[in-house]
Write a structure and sequence with these properties.
Length: 632
């Protein structure tokens, strides 16, 4: 039963338990930022603007271009307090943990549009392999419970991915081609046309991991259309995005290329459609009404082969096809009156999930379910700047599910900057919740409709200093989670039972030496108090990055990333301790005249073959080269 104890995702744990229990029963009978977006749809941390405490961590487009990551996981993994890796190779699942929380404890937004899939067996986690990093303008990571702003799913944090936007009064056509070792390749094209009062952007991209990972691969394609228009004193925006992928990998917990007995691989595909529209009063107005409407539809399907028994019992073969559609409408009004800025508003969230599939116990057992859910919400936020360098913030929200739970959440904080050249000292407290996923409620084998929302309570204190290109951030946090959903083998069902406390320290810094050298780094320490071990949470994790610009056209960069040991599990091995690892990269970028830029990065310089999961070695040394025409 060790896979059950290793909380990571509902699906992996419960399927292992199902197989383990069935096998036991059978045996007994016979004898488991850099953004060009002038008016973002949603401010990640607060609708009232900067809350005067700790700013969200921001990954800029420049940082993404320097890394040349195949997915956003590599960029997210450099953020203090965030652990972001693939669970089973480049074509595998995405594991993104904010301050030690589960991957489905952080709300993922695309320009404010919810994109997590509540029907999948991960309990609502998002597949980051769907998105092309080259189409991303910035990623904002809000660390800490944020349900008072965004409602359900923001137990541990919020990840808001802001897509590229047309710049004002310009016309640009740009193309990008990337090639790497072992036939890895990708590319894309964008057309941006701006005018005095708005702009239009069209883009398309594709990526193929090739043979970079012997055990898995992924192919991805996507298109984006975005329109901005100033109408009177309002900013109007339209967004459309379509993304699709196909992937192949050894199943999670199978032991991967090194240990899997059954060499058949999981195959799958997924897609996401998002459409969004917003109308927002410009920031110059004292009273600013805002309205946003979004629709999204996500599908994923997979065929997972059986995992042969090892230390743990076998896992049967599974097929599944999920579809989730979601409509969300948000209306609010923000007003500024002297030192006070306040927002009041409401939201409607309509979700429809459907899943069909089978689990093979020697005969195909259906696992179909269908669930609809409607949530009505009201919220209020305020920022008060009384003077003397103080900032006080408060937020509250009420979420009511039709025929289901009613939840109050709150958030408050204080910041103090005694002088402009001194750090901001801050303290914050917040509560969060996550409604049970459709999988947890509806799965006919182990789901239970009466599950309660998972809850969190978070407080943090620290200091942040920004001046002249330098930035320092240091925070101590204490997260407490309760009513966590886990599998109970006695009742053979998902139940609310676990309580987990995660404390830690996170720090990051950026130092600029003149105009030519930037040094940055991040360090995170976690202390976890859990009745069962948590997978893939090293106590220590960090990185150190250097960028040197010897001339206006040339940049040289390097990075070292490291993490400590962590607990993991697989069917062949049972519970194990995975060794920590360190990895170094070097890169260079040349920008020529006429908007041409050439970048190269050599990843995993020492050719480390440390494992990202049991039996899944990380990618070896590889060279990635990209050429951008029309770069600015």
């Amino acid at each position: 039963m060790m896979i059950v104890a290793m909380r990571n995702r509902i699906g992996a744990a419960t399927l292992a338990v199902v197989s383990c229990t069935v096998a036991a029963g059978t045996a007994q009978a016979q004898s488991a930022t850099e953004s060009s977006d002038p008016a973002p749809i949603v401010v990640t941390a607060s609708r009232t603007g900067s809350d005067g405490t700790a700013a969200p961590a921001t990954i800029s487009a420049e940082t993404i271009a320097r890394l040349q990551p195949p997915t956003l996981l590599d960029a997210l993994n450099d953020v203090a307090g965030v652990r972001a890796v693939s669970t089973n190779g480049v074509g595998g699942g995405s594991f993104v943990s904010v301050r030690g929380g589960e991957p489905n404890f952080s709300l993922v937004l695309l320009d404010g549009i919810r994109v997590h899939n509540a029907t999948n067996s991960q309990g609502g986690a998002f597949d980051f392999t769907l998105l092309d990093p080259a189409l991303v303008a910035a990623v904002e990571v809000e660390r800490g419970a944020a349900s008072a702003v965004h409602g359900s799913d923001a137990l541990a944090g919020v990840i808001n991915i802001r897509l590229r936007d047309p710049r004002r009064a310009s016309t640009d056509v740009s193309g990008r081609v990337m090639a790497g070792s072992d036939s890895e390749r990708g590319g894309g094209v964008t057309l941006a046309h701006g005018w005095k009062s708005g702009g239009l952007l069209l883009g398309a991209a594709a990526y193929d991991s090739g043979a970079s990972d012997a055990g898995s691969d992924v192919q991805r394609g996507q298109g984006i259309a975005r329109l901005r228009q100033r109408i009177g004193g309002y900013d109007a925006a339209l967004l459309g995005l379509y993304a699709t992928n196909a992937h192949r990998a050894f199943p999670q917990d199978s032991g991967g290329p090194r240990l899997a007995v059954n060499r058949a691989q999981e195959t799958g595909s997924g897609s996401v459609w998002t459409l969004g529209a917003s109308l927002r009063r410009g920031p110059e107005a004292a009273v600013r009404p805002n309205l946003s409407l979004s629709w999204s539809q996500q599908t994923d399907q997979s065929a997972t082969p059986a995992i042969r028994p090892g230390i743990l019992s076998a896992v049967p073969a599974i097929t599944v096809r999920n579809r989730l559609s979601r409509v969300e409408a948000i209306a609010d009004v923000t007003a500024t009156l002297g030192p006070l800025t306040a927002t009041v508003g409401g939201a409607l969230l309509d979700e429809h999930g459907r899943s069909t599939g089978t689990i093979d116990f020697g005969f195909p057992l259906p696992t179909d379910f269908r669930i609809d859910r409607r949530t009505l919400s009201g919220f209020a936020e305020g920022i008060l700047r009384p003077g003397l360098g103080f900032t006080l913030t408060a937020a509250g929200r009420y979420d009511a599910v039709r025929g289901g739970p009613r939840v109050w959440t709150g958030r408050g904080g204080m910041g103090w900057q005694p002088a402009a050249h001194l750090p901001v000292l801050f303290a914050r407290y917040g509560t969060g919740f996550k409604l049970p996923s459709f999988y947890a409620l509806g799965n006919p084998l182990i789901g239970r409709p009466g599950l309660r929302p998972e809850r969190s309570r978070n407080w943090e204190a620290g200091a942040e200093w920004t001046r002249g290109g330098h930035r320092l951030h240091l925070a101590y946090f204490d997260n407490r989670f309760r009513d966590l959903i886990d599998f109970d083998p006695q009742s053979f069902a998902l139940v609310n039972r676990d309580r987990v406390t995660i404390r830690g320290i996170e720090s990051d810094a950026t130092l600029r030496a003149g105009r030519t050298i930037d040094v940055s780094g991040a360090l995170t320490w976690l202390h976890i108090d859990s009745p069962t071990p948590l997978r893939n949470r090293p106590n220590w994790q960090g990185n150190l990055r250097l960028a040197w610009r010897p001339s206006r056209r040339i940049e040289l960069n390097s990075a070292v990333r490291f993490n400590g040991d962590y607990a993991d599990s697989s069917v062949p091995t049972g519970l194990v301790a995975t060794r920590g690892r360190a990895q170094a990269d070097i890169g260079a970028r040349w920008t020529g005249s006429g908007g041409v830029a050439v970048s190269a990065v050599l990843r995993n310089l020492a050719d480390s073959r440390a494992e990202t999961a049991v039996g899944f070695p990380e990618l070896g040394r590889r060279l990635l080269v990209s050429v951008v025409v029309g770069a600015r």
